[in-house]
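[[Encoded backbone]]
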Amino acid sequence: MHAAIDPIARMAAQLSRLPGIGQKSAMRLAYFIAAQPEETVRELADALLSGRTAIRMCGQCGNYTAEDPCALCTDDRRQRNILCVVRDPRDVAAIERMREYQGGYHVLHGAISPMEGIGPEDIRIRELIARLGHETIDEIILATNPDIEGEATASYIARVIKPLGVRVTRLAHGMPVGGDLEYVDAVTLGRAFEGRREI
């Protein structure tokens, strides 16, 4: 009996390594996969492997792409003088869903975190500074997460870039649309007051 379910346990162990997938979800997925036709499972495995093989990092912005440079970097309709600095490619996808930002990107692939031993040299800050040396950039928008690591990263980048004469801005943080004041934490509410604007 144990040998019969060992392949399912192995599948579940690998699936549980994915973000947001706990042991129970991994086991449920493993049983689901085991019940699928072999051809369906083969298509899934092929899509994962060929997708991972085809994906690379854009040499200019650091976003994930199948072609280097990526479609965002080669799009002539985008504003070349503005760069939005984000933690990872998922953030680029989130901003692009908004369909309002038309500048370029710089993906750091991480955030400064002394507790985890990640310093400025471990993420793509050198590449950002190099871009400022050979591209005409008027504004850097720091769009890192509003957590301790994101704030530390934004502060470090601002300190390094401001002396270069480039405008550095930070995304406003504050009240979510549809949120109630009584449920908002003090830090978020404070940021909402700091980021207030005239109407």
User: Anything to note?
Assistant: The mean pLDDT is 91. The chain is about 45% helix and 10% strand. The domain at 2-54 is CATH 1.10.8.420 (Helicase, Ruva Protein; domain 3). The first strand starts at residue 56 and ends at 57.
